[in-house]
Amino acid sequence: MQLFPCPFCGPRSETEFHFGGDAGNHRPEGFRDVTDGKWTAYLYERNNLRGPANEIWMHMTCGEVFRMERDTVHHGVARSFALTEGSGDDGMAH
């Protein structure tokens, strides 16, 4: 079992978390202007990086959504933090 660090509750079992996708994968804006290609890219195309990755996770127990930096090769977590921490226009640290 792997422990993931919830920035609100501390270390918890990985079974309490739900993967939300790549950080920075923003939903397309506009109703009529969004093409099928844009929706396909948003829903299905992923970076699938080998190594360091920035991801969105939800801790199902407390209901909080947060960002986690982890390595996809050895599954080590560098850090996790609330989406409101950091700087930039997307609410994520850069």
TrEMBL record:
It comes from the Bacteria. One of its GO terms (biological process) is tetrahydrofolate metabolic process. Signal peptide: none annotated. GO terms for molecular function: sarcosine oxidase activity. This is Sarcosine oxidase subunit delta. It comes from Rhizobium lusitanum.
